[in-house]
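User: Before I run my own analysis I want an independent prediction to cross-check against. Here's the chain; please return only the structure tokens and, at the end, one sentence I can use as a sanity check.
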Amino acid sequence: MTWKALRIPALGTLLTALALETASAATPASGTITESSSTLTYTGGPFLVSNPTPTPVSSAPTCNAATTCDAFALTVTLPADYAALHPDDYVAVRVDWESPLGDTARADLDLWVYKGATIFTSSASTNQPEIAYLPAVSGTYTLRVVPFHAQGETYTALVSLGPLPPTGIADALYRSSADVWSANLHLTGSGLSAHNNDLEPAVKMDPDGNAYVSSNGEGIGLWKISEPCGQTVASFVEPEAPLVNGGGDTDVEVAPVKNALGFYNLYTSSLHALDALVNFNSSVSMDGGATWVTTPISTANVVDDRQWNAAYGANTVYLSYHSVSGGFNIYLVRSDAGGLPGTFTGPYLVNQDVVFTSTLNNALGTMVADQRPTPPLTPPGLAGPNGEGNLYHGFVEGGNKLYVGVSHDFGVTWSSKLAHEGARGSNYAHMFSCVAVDRAGNVYTAFCDDRNIYYTFSTDQGEHWAPPRRVSNGPATKVSVFPALAAGSAGRIVLAWYGAQGRNADDPANQWQVFTARCQNALDSAPLFEQTLVSDHIIHTGRVCEQGTNCSGGRQLLDLFEMDIDPTNGSSFITYTNDTGGRWTNITRQLSGGSAIAGKSMTDHSLACPSSAPCPAAATAVPEGGEMTELEVRQLEFTVTNAGLAAGHFRYELQDALGWTIASNGPFTGITPALGAGESFTLGVDARAPATCPSGPEVYRWIVAGSGATCAPETATVELTCTTTTAVEGPGAAAGFGLGPAVPNPFDGTTTLAYRIPARGRVTVEVFAVSGRKVSMLLDQVCDAGPGRVSLSSRGLAPGIYMVRLRAAGRSQTRSVTVMR
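Assistant: Structure tokens:
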């Protein structure tokens, strides 16, 4: 028999899967979308028991009789060329619900879509309608509605074929990511202080792949990280020394082009903490951080706050700031001489065509320069015709209007572009909206509404913007705040945020962690986000305030953190604030997985470096034990599932006590590939009983553990007993019990399974999808004792794994079969 290694999201043990027979079901239980029948609806509920399982919250729900889900079998049948002829069409699944208790605001249902055993996508946000998108191609799916917070809801699901909605905020496609991240490192250093309590960090990477991290503290904390594990750092002396009045709201920037000395200019800035937030320090190092020159920048306003840096070319640096008292405007100064004293011009007003006042709910966003060089013959003082050298600045006006300011003349004049206007009452004025530009000049902005992270994009230098899409997803990040954003090559972006499980950011029960999502098709109408957990501990518990200095509490994490992309390989780097066991700055970097830059790939460091999940949660599954007759062959599958939220590897070992194995799909000892949340690795073996039964049983022992040397193993066993074949002499004679392996398996067409029952009685042979849905009844009748056979056709079955169960004489046995195409 030929085996193939399986790496699929698993739903738990066989018993859990089959218990779904008794779970609640949708009405009707199935339906089909076709070109001529392009919509259908179904209903379900009421849900009386919440199902945020498993605990701790993982990437997929557990569905059984105790924790119910509603399952609906969806078939999509379309012509083979439909997607090519209708490239904007998708199959959309929308779930809306009502609570009989009048508590709809607290009710929360989630939508999970499975294709065979695999989680195809999900929509698990807050208490808003859940929407998932499927491609406009033929296929079969299981749609599950899960009551994350049950209030007695009934729901209506609408499935429709057609273009995506033209306006408003919509969902995307969501998958678990197998990207592995490094163990989180606490940054300390030398200089004016040990920088053990630095917060609110920023990060930028130079073209050679070196990361520079700055953070607020006693002066500026500044570090350089070059090694691939993210565990070794070099700290700098205080950039603003001998001045000691800075250190608030620090930022860091790196020039994209080397200066005349052969170095990339390093820029930092900070608030004058001793000057009542009036002034700023801007510092530059032109020799790789060995020496620094600081320029104090003064303004006439009583209170200024939160400055940002951006860089262009070898020596142009920008510094923007928010004038809290001087009209609540955003101003910018520029130096074309590396920020040396006396070289700054301005200030220039960023929001030239949008009014900021103290009565409006305004919020600052970040700033970024399109770092592509201007083409030859470009007029002096102007950016290139395709946006080369453009400057972009994000902000929110009036709470619900998301803007990106655009400058085509290096910061002198600005035009404010409305990227998204939310409904009345929407509030995006949280700290902070952020902007990024990819290598093709496409512009992105990400924002938060106190529940979810969203992004939108422009392909024409900010003139027009696509409908926003939700980024954050899943039960572990029901509330998501403080987006960080970076862009790689065309259409490739990465985001990070703080996520927790509560009702909103003020929930005192929130346990905050850092999540990231990578997207390789951000310019598409239905982008795919691959999400994973990157913090290796709870970083904060309780409230997080998003109103900056207006907060009366909950500011332990302050207002932001940052991420960037390594231009040498497209990996990501994140730095964030920790508030568990002390307050400080942490860093983590991507060790393996997908690249944010097309044509580049990462060297896999995930087994050589400490990872962010050194001992990820594991779940093991083994087949049922039972009796085998002499020379009988049985197919066995031993599975390890990543039951955590972060991607990771697992060590595994299968011990075969009596040596019954005659074939396997891999070595008995090894390390799995990187598994995302909910993904599984299966080792399959064929066991054959000997010609003469031994006195004792065959015991297979399945041992799995996280790849870290100190990770505790999980062990499961399966016991097989060899029994001598007894001839069948008549009805009722003892004949043994068992279900033989499917032959062939995997199969495409028809496979056959032999069975044996010990006494006359009713025999059932049923087929289940791994989701637990019964798909076929092969046999249901009274049979005489002895052997029998059943056949299973793949016609009408989607590719994937199915379970065939024999029940007779009060006993049962299950085999797995795999349908191939």
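Sanity check: Residues 14-18 form the longest helix (5 residues).
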